[in-house]
Predict the structure.
Amino acid sequence: EKLARKMVAQAMADGGWILLQNCHLSLSYCLELTELLTAIEINQNKETPVPELNVMDSFRIWITSEPHPNFPINLLQASIKITDEPPQGIRAGLKRSYAWVTQDQLESIESNQWRQLLYTLCFMHSILIERKRFGALGWCVPYEFNHNDLVASSLFLYNYLYTDIKKGISWKTVTYMICEVQYGGRITDDYDKRLLNTYGEAWFSDTIFNKHWRFYEGYTVPDFKTVREYNDFIDGLATNDRPEVFGLHANAEITYNQKSAREILATVLSVQPKEGAKLGGETREEAVAKTCTDLLGKIEAFNKSDVKDHLRAQSGHPLTIFLRQELNRMQMVIGKVRTTLQTLKLAIEGTVIMSVELQNAMDSLYDAHVPEQWKRVSWPSPTLGYWVDNVVKRISQFNSWLTKGRPRCFWLPGFFNPQGFLTALRQENTRKNPNWSLETVALRTEVTKYTNPDSLHHSPEDGGSYIHGLHLDGAAWDKVNGILVDPPPKVLFFPLPILRVTSINSMNPTSDSRAYSCPVYKLPTRTALNYIFDVTLKTDETSAEAWTLRGVAALCSIY
């Protein structure tokens, strides 16, 4: 900051330009700079200006900063804002990449392989950036790939081909350096790394030198000798890219459009007035009070004495310990909900003071959203109705488990900790087999032909369990042939039949190369915190890599 003050003072006196970078790391100085610029503006309008605040007309301050909630709003409003965002679309991305490529760079290696590899690299760079717009189908975690990644990768290709092109290309080396080191260095999720390696293995091979090969219909690998020819070719590409170009299904475009629409509607809803005006003869407070009464009737607490008796009768099993943990968390949610609803009714009546937390809860209930204090002890949900329905189903499953014994088929989305449930299954099977060790026991899954849990008359004979409630995102399931297939048009989520989960004494079970290892997540947000386990899904003659590019996953909750 001391150096910045000195440079700003010098630029004010000389009429120079000054660049202050990464100002989000020094917000205190940004406040000081705001006061300085305000004083300069006031000083210019005085009849007798202060000499120390006189500046030359050519004086300019440039500021770079990442978005920050505490950035001084006055400084932001007084500035001319410039944003640098990646271009939208593959065509625009390729145009930007080839604006950097020079003729000397193309001619640096006298080989068509160099030129075609450089174009393939630029195409993949655009693909990786554009996949982000498809949300979780594109990347589990959004990454900020930039021009530096392209420059570093192209420099590696140049050095590698310049020295070893006569020996032939080691595609394993090229794929590893680009997908694991250059671009892969940014990736933190294992499934995103699997996706990137799938692109590398598909596109960095001898097949790209075949003149009939193409990324997708209309997207070939050209071989020109001038940058101008490449730019003319890029100008002829489609403006709007179909999801199939990325390896995704056509339904992915609907997912993108829905995501954009939700963001707009959420913004519109957030600026709506929240007065207590009457709508249809009912005030805002009356509507919320009626909602509170309705929810109190639906969400009832467990009888602690009965719960203890039932748990004692089922004691001695890992799943019973898991059930006790789930009930404790469910009791916490129910207690928080009922306390909020009861206190809010009293606040509406005027018996107690309406606190900020109660006011926020009333606003959320009126807008059919889940109050934040409920989310903190439970799980996120887009609407209040869906959340309440989830609570009722969980209570029903736990009550049935307590009174009727272990269910024949478990509703996996109804657990706070589904990983704990699967661990308890492994523990039970390990105890049944004295020669097994928990460290070497793995889960094996199989998709059954059953879709209705009521059609099951007994649990699996091999000591496993049935689970249901999962939905496929990015694919559908053929119940007749038992394989993954493309989803029907406009069907974004497809229910997966009941799964049979068993344990095997092997940490590295043999797998079919055509079987797809499908990750299962608790929520549509595919982060490591929401990851549960992998489900093995059979495919047809199509390789598993095709479903990797589709971003196929199984979800416990589709909202």
User: Anything to note?
Assistant: The first helix runs from residue 2 to 14.
